[in-house]
Structures are given as structure tokens and as C-alpha cells.
Amino acid sequence: MSRLRNVRNWLDERFGWEDLIAPLRKKTVPLHRLSYWYFLGGITLFLFVVQVLTGILLLLYYRPGANEAFESVQYIMTQVRFGWLIRSIHSWSANLMIFTAFAHMFSVLFLKAYRKPRELTWVSGVILLFLVMGFGFSGYLLPWNTLAFFATKVGTEITGQVPIIGKPLMIFLRGGEDVTGATLTRFFGFHVAVLPGLATALILVHLLLVQRLGISVPPKLEVEWTANPSAKREMKFFPNFMLREMMAWYVALGVLGLLAAVFPWNLGVKADPFVSAPAGIKPEWYFLFMFQTLKLIPPKLWFIDGEVLGVLAFGAIALLWLLLPFLESNNTSRTKRWITGAAVFALAYMAGMTIYGHFAQ
């Protein structure tokens, strides 16, 4: 203990350590029956860190070229000690991170934590979710297997349906007209440099906003605590909540380790651009509800191409979702109920279409 105290004194003399952690000592977390939803944001951040660490280990052996990518991943899985486990952890943690990011977003929505003054916290969180989905899309191609190749081809073709900017955007993503080795190199750059840089900067902004504005409580509870301050219950963030947060990370690590060891991530078959796409090819689960919706839209709706209309509709919904806090009136409970109803519908629709898409031919 004396050594730890000496280290702390050493840091304090040089960096003002006590001043640096003072905000954490003052920070508190509300205690109520829904407090466990607060752990989802921390678990998402923990899985992002796992992604960074395992991604760095994979980078030591991965080679981003159409003639080498598949073989380098194969080498990692068969020749590198515990390489199969590192890759499996990286793949499973990516999927769990997207799942917890979605769960965190809906918990914030249902707890009304996006309300004034936390509008920008919501906006930064939704943009982070889009970036996380971008991680999934760009990383999916990197093993250069058949499923990833054709899923990327379909995904970039859908991007090309956006009016005016769609075609240039598709060519930019692909690095040309078709999905080739240039696409792989470009997606590698997005996955290991552009997206991590943007995500890290935005995570810092998001955490600063949470630190500055504090943690929200459900509106009903806020009214009760305002009327009766003695009923207010909270705990210190450091060390009380932080220790609970670390236990949640420990549980997440256990689930991740179990999935990675029992269900190791398959590599599949090397991509061949000259063969036909396999029947029933589908994107990853987090894009499946959009993919299945676009499949159900008729080819032509009046004079508009059905797929174009579907892409525009999803774009408009994403924009409305991002701006959600600014659509809610401060005093109109009817508006709040409407937004909650829309959120319930969105969650049910996404879950239903994902399940339907999984079993559909």
C-alpha cells in the first residue's frame, strides 16, 4: 500500500493527480430500479477496447491484398499460437458491441435521457452507432471470403441507388466500378485508420458530455425527487459505481470468451469474383432488417424505383432518429407518448424483420 501511495504522491507532485480525478470523486450515479441499464454504455466501451487490442494483434500478421488476405487469415487461424482465438474474439466482440450499442440507444430512448440539456449527448451517441455499423461493414470484407465478397457487392450496390451522390459514393467505396482488391485495400484503410480515429474522437466528446451534464433519471422519478429531495438516492461514481461497472465488464468478458471458444468464427471459402453469387446470400444480422425490407418492396412504385424509394426512406428515418431530441416538445406529453410509441414500433419492426430475414429463402 505504501508503494501505491508513493506512486500516487509522485503523480500528484508532477501532474496534480488529485485535481485530475476530483471530478470523478464528485460525480454521482442515480439509484433506482432501472439503474442497471446504465451499464450498457460502459460495456459497449469495453468491447470497443477489446476490438482495438485484438485488432492490433491481428494486424501483425494480416496482409490487405486480394491475393494474400484470405491466406494471411488462414495462417493466423492455423499457424499462429491462439490466432484462431484472437480472431474469434475480435469477430464476436464486434457483433456484441453492435448489439450493446443498439441496446444502449434504446435504453436511453425509453428512459428519456435524450431530453434537454442532453440533446448533443444523444446526437454523438447515434453517430457513434453509425460508425460502429461502419466498422462491421468494412471489417466483414477483410477475410476476403465468398460471403464477404458478395455481401459487400450487394451493400455497395444499394449505396449506389441513392440519387445524385449514390454512383460516385459507390465508386469511392469500391475504388472503381467493381469490388476488387482495391476495394479490399480501401476498406482496410477505413477499418484500421479512418473509423477508429473518428470513433475515438467522438467517444471522448460523448464521455465529456456525460461527465459535464451528469446522468439522467426517468421523468417520473425526476418529478418525485424534485418534490421530495430526501427521497433522492445515488451512489458515488468512484469507486462504488466503477467497481460495479468492472464487474459488468467481467461478465461481458466471460460471455465473449465462451462464444469465441465454443463457437469459433469460420473463415469460409476464398472469394472468386468470376463465379456466381451463392443462393440466399444475406448481410450480417445488423443490416438484415433493412435488406429484407428492400427485398419486399415492389420493383416499381408509380414512377419511382422501389429500391431507391426504400433507400431514401431509411436515410430519412436515420436523419429523424438523429434529430429526435429536437422534435420533442418540452410541455406536450402527447408528443412524448408518440415518440415512445414510434420507438416501440421501430424496435419490434427491426427484431421482427431480422428474424424473418434470417429464415426467409
What is this structure's SSE topology?
Layout: H1 2-15, H2 17-26, E1 28-30, H3 39-59, H4 69-78, H5 83-110, H6 119-141, H7 146-159, H8 166-174, H9 181-213, H10 219-227, E2 234-236, H11 237-262, H12 285-296, E3 300-301, E4 304-305, H13 306-322, H14 324-327, H15 333-359
Antiparallel strand pairs: 1-2, 3-4
Task: Describe this protein's structure.
The protein has 361 residues and is mostly helical. 71% of the residues lie in helices and 3% in strands. The protein contains 15 helices and four strands. Helix 3 (39-59) runs antiparallel to helix 5, helix 4 (69-78) crosses helix 5 (83-110) and helix 12 packs across helix 13 (306-322). The mean pLDDT is 91.
In percent, how helical is the residue content? over 70%
Neighbour order of strands in the largest sheet: 1-2
Q: Low-confidence spans: pLDDT under 50, at least 5 residues?
A: none
Helix count equals 15
What structural class should be given to the helix and strand makeup? mainly alpha
SSE topology string? HHEHHHHHHHHEHHEEHHH
Q: Summarize model confidence as the mean pLDDT.
A: 91
Number of strands: 4
**End-to-end distance:** 63 Å
Please give the oligomerization state of what you see.
Answer: single chain
Shape: globular
Query: How many whole angstroms does the radius of gyration measure?
Result: 23 Å
| Beta-strand residue fraction | under 5%
Major beta sheet summary: 2 strands, antiparallel
Task: Provide a short characterization of the protein structure.
The protein is mostly helical and 361 residues long. It is built from 15 helices and four strands. 71% of the residues lie in helices and 3% in strands.
